[in-house]
Design goal:
- The chain has 13 helices and eleven strands.
- By secondary structure, the protein is of the alpha+beta class.
- The protein folds into three domains: about 80 residues, no CATH class; about 140 residues, 2-Layer Sandwich (D-amino Acid Aminotransferase, Chain A, domain 1), CATH 3.30.470.20; about 60 residues, ATP-grasp fold, A domain (Dna Ligase, domain 1, 2-Layer Sandwich).
- A five-stranded antiparallel beta sheet has the order 7-6-5-10-11. It has a four-stranded antiparallel beta sheet with strand order 1-4-2-3, with helices on both faces. It has a two-stranded antiparallel sheet with strand order 8-9.
- Strand 8 and strand 9 form a beta hairpin.
- Helix 1 crosses helix 3.
- The longest helix has 15 residues.
- It starts with a helix and ends in a 10-residue tail after the last helix.
Length: about 350
C-alpha cells in the first residue's frame, strides 16, 4: 500500500473513530505499557499512518514492544481490509453472511436441525421444528461477533405463538438445534460450544490452510473473543494447542480460569477431519478465496457453525501467540504476495 493510500485510509478511519471506545482502550494501553500518554498518542499516530494500525491493533499485538521490522509483520486492520477486498468478490459474500444460505450451501458439514424464521413462518412450522429438541439457538440471519445470539431452553418454547412473535421481533433469523460438543472440548469449558477457527486461502502462490485457532468461552454461552472468550493457536500438523490462550484484554491462560483444565498441550479431537472438511469446502464458492471457518467438534466429528467472509484479524494477532514479535503476515505470504499492502 503506497504512502498516499496509507494516509487516506488513516484519515477515513480517524473521521469515524469512536471516541468513547478510544479513551477506554487508551487507558488499557497506558496500564499495559506504563507509558506516558503523549508518547502513546504519538506512537499510535505513527503506527496508524505507517502500518495502517488501529488502536485495537496496537493494543492486541502489543505494538509498543515491537521494533519497526517486527511491526511490519503484524496484520493490521488496513492490511486485512486490503487482503479481503482482493481475495473475496463481494457479489458472493452472501453465501457466508446469510446463515440459512450458508447451512444450505455447506449442508454436507451441517448436521444439526435448523429453520429459517421470517414473515412467512407459521406457528405450526415452528412447532414441528422444535418437537423433540432440548435447546435451540436463535441467531440474526446476517449477524456477526455473537451479537443478537440467544439460547432458548425447552421452557422458552412451550408457547409457540409467543415464541414466534419473539423471533419476529428479531427480524429474519435462523433457529438452530443446539449441538452436543465432544466431551474433551466440553471439559475445557462446558458453558459454550468451543470451536476451531480454520482459515483457508485459494492463493496465487499456493492454496491451503493459513492458520487454526481454538476459541474457548469464559463465563458466557459463546466462545467469541468479542464476547469475553479466548483463543489459542493450534498446530496445523498435530492438532495440538501450542500456545497459551489469550483474550482481547491481553490476559493469558495456560489453564482455563473457571475449570482449571490445561489449555496448552490440548489435542483437538478430529482435527485432521476438520482440516479436510475446510480444504474441501473452500472450493465450493471459488470466488471467495479467503474464508475463516468456525468448526464445532462433536462426538461424531467436525461440524460447521459458520464461515466468515471478512475474517477478523484480531483473533490470529494476539501478542501472546507471537513471543518473538514476528506476526502472522509471513504466514499469509506463503499464499499471496503482500508487496504493496504492507
Amino acid at each position: 500500500m503506497c504512502d498516499m493510500s496509507r494516509i487516506a485510509f488513516f484519515v477515513r478511519r480517524l473521521a469515524k473513530i469512536d471516541l468513547k471506545r478510544f479513551r477506554v482502550t487508551l487507558k488499557t494501553i497506558r496500564k499495559q505499557t506504563g507509558r506516558w500518554t503523549p508518547y502513546l498518542l504519538m506512537d499510535l499516530l505513527c503506527c496508524g499512518i505507517r502500518y495502517n494500525a488501529g488502536y485495537m491493533d496496537y493494543m492486541i499485538a502489543r505494538m509498543d514492544r515491537l521494533k519497526p521490522a517486527q511491526r511490519k509483520t503484524v496484520i493490521t486492520r488496513g492490511i486485512s481490509n486490503a487482503v479481503v477486498r482482493r481475495m473475496n468478490d463481494k457479489a458472493f459474500w452472501h453465501y457466508f453472511d446469510d446463515k440459512a444460505l450458508f447451512n444450505a450451501t455447506f449442508s454436507r458439514w451441517v448436521k444439526r436441525g435448523w429453520l429459517r424464521v421470517d414473515a412467512g413462518t407459521r406457528a405450526e412450522d415452528l412447532q414441528g421444528f422444535i418437537e423433540g429438541k432440548n435447546a435451540l439457538f436463535a441467531k440474526p440471519l446476517d449477524g456477526s461477533s455473537g451479537v443478537g445470539v440467544e439460547r432458548l431452553e425447552v421452557e422458552d418454547c412451550q408457547d409457540v405463538e409467543a415464541l414466534l412473535k419473539r423471533l419476529h421481533c428479531k427480524g429474519d433469523c435462523i433457529l438452530e438445534e443446539a449441538l452436543v460438543q465432544h466431551p474433551d472440548m466440553a471439559a475445557i469449558y462446558p458453558g459454550s460450544v468451543n470451536t476451531v477457527r480454520i482459515a483457508t486461502m485459494l492463493g496465487d502462490k499456493a492454496s491451503g490452510i493459513v492458520y487454526a485457532f481454538m476459541r474457548i468461552g469464559n463465563g458466557r454461552v459463546m466462545d467469541n473473543v468479542d464476547c469475553g472468550g479466548m483463543a489459542a493457536r493450534v498446530d496445523l500438523e498435530t492438532g495440538i494447542i501450542n500456545t497459551v490462550a489469550a483474550d482481547k484484554q491481553g490476559r493469558e491462560f495456560a489453564r482455563h480460569p473457571l475449570t482449571e483444565m490445561p489449555i496448552t498441550g490440548f489435542a483437538v479431537p478430529f482435527f485432521e477431519e476438520a482440516r479436510q472438511a475446510c480444504l474441501e469446502a473452500m472450493r465450493i464458492v471459488p470466488r471467495m478465496r479467503f474464508v475463516a471457518w468456525d468448526v464445532a467438534i462433536t462426538p461424531e466429528g467436525p461440524e460447521f457453525i459458520e464461515g466468515n467472509s471478512f475474517p477478523s484479524h484480531a483473533v490470529p494477532q494476539f501478542a501472546a501467540h507471537y513471543p518473538d514479535g514476528i506476526g502472522i503476515l509471513p504466514e499469509f505470504e506463503r499464499f499471496i504476495s503482500l508487496k504493496g499492502n504492507a
